[in-house]
Design brief:
alpha+beta, 13% strand, single chain, two-stranded antiparallel ribbon, three-stranded antiparallel beta sheet
Length: 206
């Protein structure tokens, strides 16, 4: 008969060892959570910085070529005796009665009414002819509520443009083109890093 010695582990020892391992895992998981939180904060800050840079880049692109057009406008205005930035001349018109008929008495000076002053009309914006179908779709949406400032995200949602970087970039390029041609004006706010657009309502589709 062979004698075989067996070792019996106590349940209490096994429970203590498992509890110790659980505590170690809890410590490691907590460290991972802390690292994830720090990385998430850093990623959010980088994304915010990137969005701000994109907005500033779009604003800079919209100003390309403005200088030569502005100088040309000033030159043409000065050629016609108009100084940009100064109010127009105040024109006063007096109503002169026509010559009285033979059987009518001429009106006396006391019967003359006060002089009629014609206020100069504000300059109307130049009509913009829009031929691009995509630009026409954008302007149609904006013209539906011209009292609202429209952002590119709002337009993308109404037009059903997917959240694809290429599609959104194409929309922003379309808006910039409409600003350059004078159909839209850009609106920025000090407390908002987004760019908004408002229609000038001076276009015609061709």
């Amino acid at each position: 008969m062979t004698y075989q010695e067996t070792f019996v582990s106590h349940p209490s020892d096994s429970a203590d060892e498992a509890e110790h391992v659980v505590r170690q895992y809890d410590t490691l998981i907590a460290e991972c959570d802390t690292t994830i939180g720090q990385l998430s904060t850093a990623l959010r800050e980088v994304n915010e910085k990137r969005e701000a840079m994109i907005a500033l880049r779009e604003e800079a692109q919209s100003l390309q070529g403005v200088g030569p057009r502005l100088r040309a406008m000033r030159a043409h205005a000065q050629k016609h005796g108009i100084v940009p930035g100064q109010p127009g001349p105040h024109v006063t018109l007096r109503v002169v009665p026509s010559a009285p008929a033979p059987d009518q008495e001429p009106q006396t000076a006391a019967e003359d009414g006060p002089p009629v002053t014609a206020e100069p009309e504000p300059p109307r914006p130049t009509e913009v002819i829009v031929r691009s179908k995509k630009q026409q779709e954008v302007l149609t949406v904006i013209a539906s509520r011209p009292d609202l400032p429209w952002g590119s995200g709002d337009l993308a949602q109404v037009l059903g443009i997917p959240a694809d970087p290429r599609e959104r970039k194409s929309l922003r390029n379309c808006l910039r083109a409409l600003v350059v041609c004078g159909a839209l004006e850009r609106i920025t706010r000090e407390d908002d890093r987004h760019v908004y657009y408002r229609p000038r309502m001076n276009w015609r589709f061709a």
